[in-house]
Amino acid sequence: MExxxxxxxxxxxxxxxxxxxxxxxxxxxxxxRSLNNIGAIFRTCDAFAVERIMLCGIxxxxxxxxxxxxxxxxxxxxxWAYFPTTAECIESLLREGYTLCCLEQVxxxxxxxxxNPQDGHRYALVLGHEVxxxxxxxxxxxxxxxxxxQLGTKHSLNVSVSGGIAxxxxxTHIAPK
Length: 177
Fold this sequence. Notes:
The protein is of the alpha/beta class and 177 residues long. It has helices at residues 14-19, 35-47, 65-71, 74-77, 86-95, 136-141, 159-174, and strands at residues 23-30, 50-56, 80-83, 99-103, 110-111, 123-128, 144-147.
């Protein structure tokens, strides 16, 4: 085996990426405080052609050197919008016909591997604050709460890591054609 070169990867430029088909998934950041986490989520959304990111509340917006440090330019390729509150964002997504999915540890959650996104549907994945998680008022508005099963002692994953796992799960079901 030989490692691929940059040219073997067939990377596209930002303009081509913006025109290509996207996964029918919007990622909502509910008061994510770490700019490094925000940048990492931008980079993951670029990798899997997520349609857009909604930054809400205290979640910082590009341009930012701290976001760029982990996004590596993905903040320029992935469409994004800012909402002063997550509630305003959720209202907008509901009007657009999205199925709202939060990634949170709640009673009655669905384990991620048991959730099967369907082609033709539009999904919004809500990721929460690093300490407090997704706000309970937002949880109450979601159609489903997804949980990543864990076996360790912490039952805690970094928001960008858990977001990446969930985005990959959606990608395996509804990848753009």
